[in-house]
Design brief:
The chain is of the alpha/beta class. It contains six helices and nine strands. The longest helix has 13 residues, at about 185-195. It is globular, with a radius of gyration of 18 Å.
Length: about 260
């Protein structure tokens, strides 16, 4: 969700899963480069960060299954497999790595999928790096023909099971308009399907702090916004949609 960096709470670290534009944003990195925070990313992505002003000593590149210590709070950050691709322009496809990440502390751990399709590697991730208290899986910008590179809500529930469960915090939805489904489709699909799968959903208002273990039910905040859009009324913040005309025509493969 677009928000000024200055409005965020103190940042301990920045994790960049891969180099696609909706995950590695130039203007955002310029602002983050001003802060004294470390960056953890996939192999090859550090060159972008360094060229945009991040000091090289603040950048840690990780191959799959590599880990690094954060240096504060006893946290360990481990890169893990994902099923996606990389590139920021013509001729640059798959020159850098894409990853999921696990952050583990003394008492808790969470998993972040980055961008990915459904992969049997999730069972191996659970075996080697689990269990997880919180699982952050991408659910938006999906299409059946993109199943090898994006999960979508149904496959996210399958991925959650392979990862051994944990509270599910859906990410990668309601921000950039990169697919042909309604922006709230992933959220509504998860709310409909999750109970039958026994999934514990954590879906706070975008930007709202949350303690996953204390969430008892989902408050579908997005429905008020969707209703206002249908009436043609100005949408109050948070605005989960982008102008699709700025992204050009859709292609067989998504740009993220």
């Amino acid at each position: 969700m677009p928000t000024p960096i200055a409005s965020l709470p103190p940042i301990d670290a920045v994790i960049v899963s891969h180099d696609h534009y909706d995950h590695l944003d130039y203007t955002t990195i310029l602002e983050l480069a001003k802060l004294d925070v470390p960056f953890f990313t996939s192999l090859g992505v550090g060159a972008h960060l360094e060229s945009w002003g991040v000091a090289p000593e603040r950048i840690t590149e990780l191959d799959w299954w590599d880990k690094a210590e954060l240096g504060r709070g006893g946290l360990t950050i481990t890169a893990a497999p994902s099923q996606h691709f990389s590139g920021r322009g013509l001729g640059g496809r798959n020159l850098t790595l894409w990853s999921s990440f696990v952050v583990r502390g003394p008492k808790h751990a969470f998993f972040f999928s980055g961008d990915t399709g459904l992969t049997p590697e999730y069972a191996e991730i659970q075996k080697r790096l689990g269990p997880f208290d919180l699982v952050m899986l991408e659910v938006g910008a999906f299409h059946p023909s993109w199943g090898d590179i994006h999960l979508g809500p149904e496959n996210a529930l399958e991925a959650l099971a392979l990862l051994g469960g944990g509270s599910l915090l859906p990410v990668h939805w309601g921000t950039f308009n990169l697919a042909i489904h309604a922006w709230d489709d992933p959220a509504e699909t998860l709310v409909r399907l999750a109970p039958a799968k026994g999934a514990h959903l954590v879906m706070p208002l975008l930007g709202q702090p949350v303690e996953p273990s204390r969430v008892e039910q989902v408050d579908p905040w997005w429905r008020n916004i969707a209703a206002l859009e249908k009436k043609g009324a100005p949408t109050p913040p948070p605005d989960p949609s982008e102008d699709p005309s700025a992204l050009g025509e859709f292609t067989d493969l998504p740009i993220d």
